[in-house]
Amino acid sequence: MKFTRIALACVLALAALAAAADTIRPVPIPDMSKLDKSRAAQLVEMRQQFDKAKTTLVGPPLSQAYATLAANYQQAGFADEADVALANAILVSPEDARWIYLRGLLAGKRNQPAQARDYFEQAFRLDREYLPIRLAVIESRLAAGETDSARQLIDQAGEAGKDDARLAALRARAALLQKRYPEALSAVEAALKQDPTANQLYALQAEIYTAQGNAAAANSARARAGNTAARTLDPLGDGFLGIRSQAPAQAGGAAAKPDDPLTQARFLIEVGQYASAREHLAKVLKSEPGNVGLLGLSARLEAMLGGHATASTQAAEAVRLAPKDALVLVTRGVVAETGGDERAAQSDYEKAIGMDGKLAEPRLLLGNRYMRQGRYAQAAEQYRQLVKLDPRQPDGYARLAAAQVADGRCADALRETEAAAKEYPRMGPLLQVYVRLAATCRAATKEQRKTASEYAGLLYKSNLTPQVSEAVALINAAEGNFTAASELQGSAMFAAVRDGGNEAAEPFRVFFKQFGAKQLPDRPWPADNPLFKPARLQPQPARAAEAPAPKPAG
């Protein structure tokens, strides 16, 4: 497959994009004259920190910074400014479903149902595992009258939605629309059992009884109806909207705590508000000093922010309180690795895997450790287990392929990736791994390269990120078309600069030089790519300066 003309068109299109609306736009500074002085001062300081930080950030950290800005502006009532910030986050990380989902929530708050639905559908195509995204899509499809497709998504929710009251409520709504009244009533009862406080469900129950012609039962249910909807735990959405996360009440009617400190802290960390997360954790730990989850999260945050002494103390205390908890051992390992003691970290990761082989994090971190040691076969085995644990996560396939290539087994990597691509033919990042392998592995067959060329065409049409452009460039180089390869790689660099500055283009220069010299790379990624050389966990200097670490207890 030849891409010469397409590549030239790509360069011109990207040049046009630089002047179009779908590029990084300055986030307007809102008029804060109507806010109280304290809140306005907080927003001014936050914006100053953002403007200073964004010049040094690229990729996911930059998109998270934009999301943080959006969350702050949204919660202060500045929806327009928040929307611009989220749009930038999506442009920087177009395959990160989180920011697309949040933009959908924002569109819903702005009474833009069509736009909200579009964002939810986009997010769902990228992430089918996060239950709130699925629920948002189901609700939007039901609202649009697409009951059958909504019902299909309900039935496909699997274990994630087994005990979720909101999903049960949606099942009841779909069954009502399909005139399956007994099933609808059963689903309402299940939702009430899962969340007894959700008295809004009685109004739905009344609708079902009315449809059945049971007026007495409908009136009785309607008399019990209220305004409390069935809930699902959505730390991402609740944190963005400024809602205090609440878990559904437990069966038996005991209401859950109104605040979930772990959820609140995790969201603050997720969107980069590290100083706020540290302050929040320190506060709740005073009232819950024996909470192993809070201790572990605080230890990880302190390790990242450079507070190694505090982190070590908290991690050790968590292990003392829960010595048989594999997650606690992983946390102690993370703290040790961040502090530079990789041997101790490796020991904890291995112990944690021995306790619970289904944990993904210690396998990832142990695989990374083996890669740094040059133990590629052992690294490949850990990454292979990652793929088995979550076959829909493309990152695992890329890591596995890199380890096998480093071990001199690119043919094995190509064969395993080919099998996975046949099973998940719509997983773009996985197809990209296959294209890269088929282009650079000298053992690749003509048939494999033909398949890779077809995948490259699909990728090119669906989502032309800089990484996709590079993959397509590689398959062109493998076919001897170095002119097209150079043009495509040049367009990848242009897009990288557009979205993240000059530094973001550096990773693409290695192959660009090789294509210019008519050389086909012998690896699917440059040798210094993090897939081949995963960095050790270590404190983040810029973050460490945010706030002083509290002194260790005792």
Automatic annotation (TrEMBL):
The keyword ATP-binding does not apply. Residues 519-554 are annotated as: Disordered. Residues 533-548 have a biased composition (Low complexity). Gene3D superfamilies: Tetratricopeptide repeat domain. Transmembrane segments: none annotated. TPR repeats lie at residues 360-393. Residues 1-20 form the signal peptide. The keyword Magnesium does not apply. Keywords: Repeat, Signal, TPR repeat. This is Tetratricopeptide repeat protein.
